[in-house]
Amino acid sequence: MMLILVAHRHPVQKQAAKKMHKLALAFPQFHAHFIEDELAIWNLLSPLELLDEDADVELQEYIIETVFGILTHNENIKGFANNPDVISWVIKALDTGNEKTKVTAANIFFILSTYNDKKLVVGDCGGLKSLLHIIESEEDYSSMKYAIKAIFNVYDQMEQTKGN
Fold first, then answer.
1. What is the model's pTM?
2. Mind listing the UniProt keywords for this protein, alphabetically (predicted)?
3. Structural domain boundaries enclosing 6
4. Model pLDDT, residue 4
């Protein structure tokens, strides 16, 4: 399923992403796969690399929702937070996604910002700019809420770093 996401183009990728999302919802043990296989995260998120404002919003939505579901497995937070591409791809989803994708992406940033070692990475990679843009321009309070929580976590870490 993961190789289909990487090897094919949009229509096939979208179907594969939809199946991955359903697998992640139906089988929590599927989440452990992302701890065991370092390439699994890249394979899942790589279709987002090529997306822009004209992106297939359903493909983006399925992938981002799958990531969110996978992050419910605590061990995966570290794996995703330590992958430099994850933050840039989630930023892209925040900037180009539909309303549902933006809520989920903001929530992903909130979850990743709880991982102590990577709070500053979220801020340093442009995540704060995208999160602030969500707060300024969104009418959806769910995405604003998660954006504010993520920003607070990053700010809190910056303050703690200054104090040391």
1. 0.81
2. Ubl conjugation pathway
3. 2-163
4. 53
Contacts of 57-60 spanning 24+ positions with Cβ under 8 A: 57/97, 57/98, 57/101, 58/14, 58/18, 59/10, 59/13, 59/14, 59/17, 60/93, 60/96, 60/97, 60/98, 60/101
Distance CA 29, CA 117 (A): 26
Domains of the chain: total: 1
Closest by CA position to 44, among listed 72, 75, 65: 65
What does the pLDDT average to over 41-56? 74
CATH number of the structural domain spanning residue 96: 1.25.10.10
Query: Distance between CA 41 and CA 20 in Å, rounded?
Result: 12
Share of the chain above pLDDT 70, in %: 82
Q: What is the pLDDT of residues 27-40, one digit of tens each?
A: 877 777 777 777 88
